[in-house]
Design a protein that fits this description.
The chain has about 90 residues and is mainly α. Helix content is about 55%, strand content about 0%. It is built from three helices and no strands.
Length: about 90
């Protein structure tokens, strides 16, 4: 992963807050924050240096990556762990 920046951490925290508030599944017109949720994820994805078609740190589901994508998948998981640790450290 590239070096975690304040901007990355802010975006990550904002996405997690939307998830934790349960507003990630409802569009703004219905009182949610789904568009903002997607926009923040895309910006974080870009800052992490990932291509739009690659897995992102908020990937959901229990599916396993294709054999050819295992290294990328592990990189995504490492990024998520690093962001979680940095966020926990900031809150401490």
């Amino acid at each position: 992963m590239t070096k975690t920046t304040v901007e990355m951490l802010d975006l990550y925290a904002r996405v997690r807050a939307i998830e934790q508030a349960g507003q990630d599944e409802t569009w703004e017109v219905d009182g949610g924050r789904r568009r903002e949720y997607f926009d923040l994820q895309v910006e974080l994805h870009r800052l992490l240096g990932r291509q739009i078609w690659e897995a992102h740190v908020f990937q959901r589901g229990l599916h396993k990556p294709a054999a050819s994508d295992v290294a990328k998948w592990e990189s995504v998981q490492a990024s998520r762990v690093e962001l979680e640790r940095a966020l926990a450290k900031e809150k401490a």
